[in-house]
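# step 3/5: fold
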Amino acid sequence: QVQLVESGGGLVQAGGSLRLSCVASRSIFSIVAIAWYRQSPGKQRELVAAITSGGSTHYADSVKVRFTISRDNAKNTVYLQMNSLKPEDTAVYYCNVVYSALDAYWGQGTQVTVSS
């Protein structure tokens, strides 16, 4: 029912910046939370950042200060601004939109590669 389209990934040198976008086909005005996860080969998927419908945010210790999650309800879009990127940030990043405890969706993933 809901499609999430991610974009903004790519190659960047260490210290550079990228902004990921996740556009939902359904309104995100009433969501419980939106989160960004990332996963590298051989690693478990980890929570990177999350934002509630009220704007409260949470960040993993490894990305705090460097990353910023935000949303634009009018555009049904959530963003992940990534600054001061490090090689260890290399991963596939996934958008997760939670409408309720029983209604959540995942994006297709977008590759972020940071070179040293």
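# step 4/5: annotate
The mean pLDDT is 95.
# step 5/5: archive (pending)
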